[in-house]
């Protein structure tokens, strides 16, 4: 399956949405705020990739990136994202909000996983194009509330950017373990390995944002997962929404709405 060959049922579902009805995983509040930001939801869009993750063994006493595993985790997510974006393209969307990236492992093997990207495709109600500078629908994992707030401050999402690094953390030797027994002290080799791995993931996410000519990244988070590799091999995933300044209008910070209470 390629990124241009969506399932037949997906095409039929998207065609039904072209007649005016929309689907969305936005909450009621998110729906109203996305509408207030000037965008109308078109439909829930999804991309999926079931990926076989190859075998790579780390050196027991050495900290190092597992490049083969890093590449697999990155490529699998990219396939899911591209297929989600293609569904948005078929709906004529300007972007996708509330994107979620999930990984699921099934009983048929610990070396295979399904990568899923899900979000709500939206279209601008003013008729203008809000696609990013690569000509693609923008993607964002911001909530509907955060999306509205961002647009009110003169910024706009470009794309969900990510960086990943699967890293093997060296085991302690017997001499090290005995030498530190009963004593307080930093485990310097562990500290350095975790530090290096996080830096690689964050730098790769930052490079994606730079390629989009982004002004910055908001909503950034750094996730750590063992998956099925054991406690000494960890994936570090850095995610965030790359944003750009729109126009030269002064930034206006939205003020909280005053709630009037009518007491009896």
Automatic annotation (TrEMBL):
Q: Which Gene3D superfamilies match?
A: Hypothetical protein apc22750. Chain B
Q: Which InterPro entries match?
A: UPF0145_dom_sf, UPF0145_YbjQ-like
Q: Belongs to which family?
A: Belongs to the UPF0145 family.
Please state what the protein is called: Heavy metal-binding domain-containing protein
């Amino acid at each position: 399956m390629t990124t241009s060959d969506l399932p037949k049922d997906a095409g039929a579902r998207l065609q039904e949405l072209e007649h005016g009805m929309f689907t969305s995983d936005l909450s009621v509040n998110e729906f109203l705020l996305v509408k207030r930001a000037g965008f109308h939801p078109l439909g829930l869009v999804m991309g999926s990739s079931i990926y076989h993750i190859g075998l790579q063994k780390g050196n027991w006493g050495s900290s190092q990136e597992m490049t083969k595993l890093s590449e697999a985790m990155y490529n699998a997510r990219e396939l899911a994202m591209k297929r989600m974006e293609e569904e948005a393209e078929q709906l004529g969307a300007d972007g996708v909000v509330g994107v979620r990236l999930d990984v699921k492992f099934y009983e048929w093997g610990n070396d295979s996983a399904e990568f899923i990207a899900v979000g709500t495709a939206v279209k601008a109600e003013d008729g203008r194009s809000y696609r990013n500078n690569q000509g693609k629908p923008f993607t964002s994992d911001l909530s509907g509330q955060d999306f509205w707030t961002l647009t009110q401050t003169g910024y706009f999402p470009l794309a969900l950017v990510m960086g990943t690094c699967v890293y093997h953390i060296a085991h302690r030797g017997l001499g090290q373990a005995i030498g530190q027994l009963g004593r307080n002290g930093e485990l310097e080799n562990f500290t350095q390995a975790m530090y290096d791995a996080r830096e690689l993931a964050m730098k790769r996410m930052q490079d994606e944002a730079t390629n989009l000519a982004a002004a910055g990244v908001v909503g950034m988070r750094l996730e750590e997962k063992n998956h099925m590799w054991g406690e000494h091999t960890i994936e570090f995933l850095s995610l965030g929404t790359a944003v750009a300044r729109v126009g030269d209008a002064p930034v206006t910070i939205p003020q909280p709405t005053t709630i009037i209470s009518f007491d009896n």
